[in-house]
Amino acid sequence: MHEKILIQAEDGLTSATFVPALGGLGVSMTMPEPKMPGGFRELLYLPEDFSWETPGKISGGFPICFPICGRLSRDGEAGIYLFDGKRYQMGIHGFAHLFPWELLYHEKNRMGMRLSSNEKTLEMYPFSFELELHYEARPGEIVCRHQYINTSEDRVLCYYAGFHPYFYIDPSRYSKDKVIVCAEVSGTFFYNKTLSDIVDSDQTPLSLRSALSNPEINEKLFYLENEGGFELHFPDGAIIGVDFDSFEGEDRPSFPFLQLYHVPEKPFFCVEPWMSHPNAMNTQLATRVLFPGEVDEATLTLTQRSW
Fold first, then answer.
1. Over the stretch 147-198, which tens digit does the pLDDT of each residue have?
2. Which domain holds residue 98?
3. If you compute the radius of gyration of the chain from its CA atoms, what whole number of angstroms results?
4. Number of domains in the chain
5. Percent helix, strand and coil across the chain, each rounded to 5?
6. What strand order describes the sheet that includes 206-211?
7. What 3-state DSSP class applies to 96?
8. Residues 161, 144: contact at Cβ < 8 Å?
9. Could you tell me the CATH number of the domain that includes residue 31?
């Protein structure tokens, strides 16, 4: 079994565990129980058939999506995009979750890891890059500093990353109709039938307040123009929040898109912060662009408080 890297805050209750060899996946994150001194709760879901030996499709934990979020489609063909006159193939959410990552350092409450371009990534994605994730556990907080580097000497890099957390909805404690997702959104996007591109939008701001069981929010994509985060409100008083700042010199969130997803009969709910919408590699409307040697860097913070 691959090495698990545990980081833990001073309180002994806030922790995160990662497996760099399995796509840099976060497999556990814990926070203090809001009304149980000395207790902690697991925030992440892993499926019963989770493989601890080889990276696989995104199905649980806290993975990163890179160099795309969602699906691709070109001329009706799934998984295809065109760049510089050549067709490339890439699966849903890219490939970062399919490669082993390099462990950069590990301390009691901090760790860092890196994914670099290689021969196999270049077959799918013709860009030289380094992607680094630096995690720190603080009492009641897990902070991720994410960094994207164009290591090419002469080629502009295009990408749009995201996170895909599977939040555990413990069925022994509460049902999905009792857990509320909350966010201040600036608009809503609508998918085509294959969920591979957006076809329309509604730019009406709204205060999203919905039970997780609401079928109207499943596979829904929202836009955040000013607010950078969301919350999950649990009936036992816990509030799990995710906040993300802006890239340097920009005035919008580093992840301006929120994708909601779950399988009703399974004990998880995904609120996925994305940098862009599906198929942006083909439309080129909302990709991040880095010139040779340039770096994008921002932070995402997972918190817990109680009401």
1. 999 999 999 999 999 999 999 999 999 999 999 999 999 999 999 999 999 9
2. 5-306
3. 19
4. 1
5. 5, 45, 45
6. 102-106, 110-116, 129-138, 141-150, 295-306, 238-244, 229-233, 180-185, 206-211
7. helix
8. no
9. 2.70.98.10
- Strands, E, within 56-140: which ranges? 64-65, 73-74, 77-78, 80-83, 86-89, 102-106, 110-116, 129-138
Euclidean distance between CA atoms 83 and 282, whole angstroms: 8
Q: Which residue in 50, 53, 54 sits closest to 27, CA to CA?
A: 50
8 A C-beta contact, residue 92 and residue 71: yes
Smallest CA-to-CA distance from 222 within 201, 236, 240 is with 201
What are the structure tokens assigned to 198, written together?
A: 């957006």
Residues found in the chain: 307
Q: Is the pTM of this model over 0.90?
A: yes
Q: Could you read off the pLDDT of 200-259 as tens digits, one per residue?
A: 999 999 999 999 999 999 999 999 988 789 999 999 999 999 999 999 989 889 999 999
Nearest to 113 by CA among 97, 134, 143: 134
Specify whether the backbone of 83 is left (phi greater than 0), alpha (psi in -120 to 50) or beta: beta
